[in-house]
Design brief:
- There is one protein chain.
- By secondary structure, the chain is an alpha/beta fold.
- It has 9 helices and 10 strands.
- A 6-stranded parallel β-sheet has the order 7-6-5-9-8-10, with helices on both faces.
- The N and C termini lie far apart (42 Å).
């Protein structure tokens, strides 16, 4: 997918894309937009819960260099899944679900690498928030080695509510935390499981930390205090699969 095909712009064009269910990663809107069509578009966006970011006009000008009419829609190369529909089907197939909850991971390369590892390790899905996550475009697909084109990704308006749904459905929530005294090889990662990973600069949110059944760390022997989040994801996934198959 080249850059010219990664976005569409113009009020009518974006409105039609939203109404017809075209996969959209997120929408950039000019601050203080006006007009009946603009407000009609806002209403349609709210119905399908597409993430919206309000930006100054000069940012939109920089992206297109054309008459964007105050709106740009970044297209998604993937179809997003519904967590409430996907999870029952995993159970129905006789499998203990293995889900990744990615809280605020905005780096495209880290995101793509995590999806690649999740697919290789046989995980079932990744859950991301509607806001604050990496943009899923050509770069993310490339970094995932194409895994994003078939690996289920659930974009949820509230990642906290999504975690609550998983917990109430019988999944153990395991939060990755370097502050934890429980190291990964001593933790029980068997059974239905959701692994929560946060951004490298701040970790998982307090809400998700409090929802976690256990917080687990990876033992560090060198002078570097933390791992890249995509590397940490691979370690957690491997240990979970090892415990399931031993």
């Amino acid at each position: 997918m080249d850059n010219q095909r990664e976005f569409i712009f113009g009020t009518r064009a974006v409105l039609e894309a939203v109404r017809t269910g075209k996969p959209i990663d997120r929408i950039l809107l000019k601050k203080e937009g006006r007009g009946s069509v603009y407000h009609e578009l806002l209403e349609e966006i709210r119905k399908v819960e597409i993430p919206v970011q309000y930006v100054p006009q000069n940012r939109l000008d920089y992206i297109t260099g054309k008459n964007h009419q105050g709106i740009i829609a970044w297209l998604s190369p993937i179809e997003f899944h519904s967590l409430t529909n996907l999870l029952p089907s995993i159970f129905e197939n006789g499998k203990d679900p293995l889900v990744m909850i990615l809280d605020g991971i905005s780096d495209v390369r880290n995101f793509g690498a995590i999806i690649r590892s999740a697919d290789c390790m046989g995980a079932d899905a990744a859950v991301i928030p509607g806001k604050g996550s990496a943009r899923i475009g050509a770069d993310a697909v490339k970094t995932s080695a194409g895994a994003l084109l078939h690996f289920p990704v659930c974009r949820e308006k509230s990642i906290v509510k999504a975690a609550e749904f998983l917990k109430n459905s019988g999944l153990k929530l395991v939060g990755a935390s370097e502050k934890s005294g429980l190291v990964i090889h001593e933790a029980d990662l068997s059974g239905p499981l959701a692994i929560i990973l946060g951004a490298e600069d701040r970790g998982i949110s307090r809400e998700l930390e409090s929802l976690s059944d256990i917080l687990v760390g990876i033992p560090m022997a060198g002078q570097t205090e933390s791992l890249n989040v995509s590397v940490a994801a691979g370690i957690f996934l491997y240990e979970a699969v090892r415990q399931r198959t031993r």
